[in-house]
Design brief:
By secondary structure, the protein is mainly alpha-helical. About 65% of the residues lie in helices and about 0% in strands. About 40% of the residues are buried.
């Protein structure tokens, strides 16, 4: 066989042979979608707030209310007596905090949403007012944890502006419950996400990233940031991405595994939005801190980091080189022999995109 013929025979082995950049991008996107399907359930888009030490009655089917008891709750929730109103709202919250089959639709149908939203708004000297706001926010959080229709019922009742105002509450439990509620609403999809963003939610949310915030609260904030970054049809507004990236550059140094996992998944979602978003992530300076996480002791961190750097190397040769310059390839012998097959698969996907680069990258 002549040298020329041998080269022709081997030509089909090169990924970019005979393919333009757009076709290569499609192939990479198809692989990305296939891999992401395996992880779709890993991060909950919405979460109910169920007490860790809930009363046994909260998780029993007997907690489901009769029509009459619901009517009593709604009627008492409209009471002008603070104690009566607080007890009614708390009763509604307990129904929604049950472990199994919370009666979300029943509560919505009862007409209680307007009064729950109204309880978020009132300001007076009544010492029970923060408790009422907290219970109402908790109830609405759990309603918003349900289906899209249930989440949208909370939005259409006008709750979002009041949750934003409660971020400035002097009661930390009220603040955190408002953050949780907003996370559920943002997690419903791009339309709700962009509505919350349009009301100015991002800046006050990010202000909670400070050394004084309790760890469980900060975990909730990190989870909300993931929801802000998650959807890409359409992706978050460019201004929002630029606002979030400095916060992610701070959180990527956090020692808590839950926060670190959410931070790296947020970066993976942002890098899954095309070359412009990839460049924004690179320009933030986070890549040198992202690449070492490929060898993190926690497999959840490794998985998220591999997805993020894998997305970056679907970009231009220059963007790919940013990852390689951080010695990314040194992590791959262990990733290719990892006990988790999904990590093996994503490691191979990463390498296949390196071999679609320039000659220097192929040789590396």
């Amino acid at each position: 066989m002549t040298t020329e013929l041998a080269l022709k025979e081997r030509g089909h082995l090169y990924k970019n042979k005979g393919k333009d950049a757009d076709e290569m991008r499609r192939r990479r996107t198809e692989v990305t979608v296939e891999l992401r399907k395996n992880k779709r359930e890993e991060h909950m888009l919405k979460r109910r707030n169920v007490p860790l030490t809930a009363d046994s009655t909260d998780s029993d089917d007997s907690v489901r209310p009769s029509t009459q008891s619901l009517q009593d709750i709604v009627q008492n929730a409209y009471s002008s007596e603070p104690a009566v109103q607080l007890n009614a709202v708390q009763a509604a919250r307990k129904l929604l905090s049950s472990d199994r089959n919370p009666p979300i639709d029943d509560l919505i149908a009862s007409g209680i949403l307007p009064i729950l939203v109204d309880c978020l708004t009132k300001e007076d000297d009544d010492p029970s007012r923060p408790s009422l706001q907290f219970e109402a926010a908790w109830a609405l959080t759990n309603i918003a944890s349900g289906t899209s229709a249930q989440t949208r019922a909370v939005v259409e009742a006008g709750a979002v502006p009041h949750f934003l105002r409660l971020l400035q509450s002097d009661q930390q439990n009220v603040q955190e419950q408002a953050v949780w509620a907003l996370g559920n609403i943002i997690g419903d999809g791009p339309q709700c996400r962009d509505y919350v963003i349009s009301l100015g939610a991002v800046k006050p949310l990010l202000e909670f990233i400070n050394p004084n915030i309790p760890l469980p609260f900060l975990r909730n904030v990190a989870w909300v940031i993931v929801n802000l970054c998650r959807n890409k049809d359409p992706p978050p507004p460019v201004d929002t991405i630029q606002e979030i990236l400095p916060a992610l550059c701070v959180l990527i140094h956090h020692q808590d595994i839950n926060i670190l996992v959410d931070t790296v998944w947020a970066l993976s979602y942002l890098t899954d939005g095309g070359n412009e978003q990839i460049q924004m992530v690179i320009d933030s300076g986070v890549v040198p801190f992202l690449v070492p996480l490929l060898s993190h002791v926690d497999v959840k961190v490794q998985t998220a980091a591999l997805r993020a750097v894998g997305n970056i190397v679907t970009g231009t040769d220059e963007q790919t080189q940013t990852v390689l310059a951080c010695d990314a390839l040194s992590h791959f012998p262990s990733l290719l022999t990892h006990s988790k097959e999904k990590i093996n698969k994503e490691a191979v996907w990463f390498l296949s995109n390196i071999t679609a680069g320039n000659m220097t990258q192929v040789q590396a």
